[in-house]
Specification:
- The protein is an alpha+beta fold.
- It is built from four helices and nine strands; from the N terminus they run βααββαββββαββ.
- Helices cover 28% and strands 33% of the residues.
- Strands 7-6-5-8 form a four-stranded antiparallel β-sheet. Strands 1-3-2 form a three-stranded antiparallel β-sheet.
- α1 crosses α2.
- The relative contact order is 0.18.
């Protein structure tokens, strides 16, 4: 099972290392000490925490200017597969992405809950919003 340093967890969660430390010190995020004394977070616990945290986050207000990026670094929170296809869920900050891929690809890549991944999105239509614009 993968484990993550405080800095790695912070990047996956989209927060500072200090925030991750505060969550751990406050008992919200479970950490363990490795042989050298450094604190680490196991991947399954981090995936569960990322999912919980994302459901509590408010959605972006309409007054925020946004543009969607095509690569989302995140953590695998669920993998469901049958003989042919697999559904992989990734939590990237407050964003939950769901991908349908071959079970063979999941097996070859060793994708499992708690693993850090990058979800790449290709689309024939990309929208860029800027609230308050006049549309011209």
């Amino acid at each position: 099972m993968p484990s993550y340093s405080i800095g790695q967890a912070a990047r996956l969660l989209g927060v500072s290392s200090e925030t991750v430390r505060r969550w751990a010190d406050g008992g919200q995020l479970r950490m363990e000490r490795e042989g050298g004394g450094n604190r680490t977070i196991d991947g399954v616990s981090l995936a569960a925490f990322a999912t919980e945290r994302a459901t509590a986050l408010p959605t972006a207000p309409e007054e925020v200017a946004t543009s969607v990026r095509n690569a989302f670094a995140g953590i695998v929170t669920a993998v469901r597969s049958d003989e042919v296809i697999a559904q992989v869920e990734v939590q990237s900050g407050p964003h939950r992405l769901v991908s349908l891929v071959s079970r063979e690809a999941v097996d070859e890549l060793g994708i499992a809950v708690g693993m850090a991944v990058t979800a790449r999105v290709k689309s024939t239509s990309v929208h860029v919003d800027r609230p308050g614009g006049n549309g011209s």
